[in-house]
Amino acid sequence: MKDLAPHRAVPRAINWNRLQDDKDLEIWNRLTVNFWLPEKMPLSNDIQSWSHLTEQEQTLTIRVFTGLTLLDTIQNSVGAPALMADAVTPHEEAVLTNIAFMEAVHARSYSSIFSTLCSTREVDEAFRWSEENPHLQRKSRLILDEYDATANPLRRKVASVFLESFLFYSGFYLPMHWSSRARLTNTADLIRLIIRDEAVHGYYIGYKFQRAMERLTEAERAEIKDFAFALLFDLYEIESRYTESLYDPLGLTEDVKNFLHYNANKALQNLGFEGLFPDELCRVNPAIMAALSPNADENHDFFSGSGSSYVIGKAVATEDEDWDF
Amino acid sequence: MGGLVYYSSRSGNTHRFVTRLGIAAARIPISPGDPMPAPSQPFVLVLPTYADGEGRGAVPKQVIRFLNDPDRRQKLRGVIAAGNRNFGTTFALAGDVVAQKCAVPVLYRFELAGSETDLARVTEGLDRFWKAQLSTVI
Question: Which chain B residues touch A275 with a CB distance below 8 Å?
Answer without folding.
Answer: 115
